[in-house]
Amino acid sequence: RTGAHDKTKETTDCCEAISSSRSCCYGCPWPGEYAFGMLQRETGTHRLVRIWNGKRQTTFAGVEVVPLLPDDAVTSLELDPKDLQWDFFRSGGKGGQNVNKVETGVRVTHTPTGVVMKCTEERSQLLNKGKALVKLKAKLLLIQEQQKVEELQSIR
């Protein structure tokens, strides 16, 4: 209805195998006004059913919608550097020698809350570090907003 699917520019895949299951992160900037409001109801577990060789296969996918915040909102949230744990790793995937040799992947953990964000989108560790920090701040702001809503509901 909104025509936003035609305007989606890129989808970034940063899949990583975790034990026997597979965990994938897809970043998809959704253009237009009120995009977060329209997509926030998609948060949760989705059931994907497909038919392969006459057999029905069911897969479950967890979806989390996090808003892309403007620069002023992101810079307003100050994080103590002592609360952040940085991990650097080889990203793997496409990119040849660079991703196999250089630790360009970044994982940042906010220790008080346990929120983890990782970024392997760029070929530069510095750019990935900045993107991971912005994503972490967006997630923390979203958590703060949810806590405020829960607090208001408990008062009622």
Automatic annotation (TrEMBL):
Belongs to the prokaryotic/mitochondrial release factor family. The lineage of its organism: Eukaryota, Sar, Alveolata, Dinophyceae, Suessiales. It comes from Effrenium voratum. This is Prokaryotic-type class I peptide chain release factors domain-containing protein. Pfam families: RF-1. InterPro entries: Pep_chain_release_fac_I, Pep_chain_release_fac_I_sf. GO terms for molecular function: translation release factor activity. Residues 90-106 form the Prokaryotic-type class I peptide chain release factors domain.
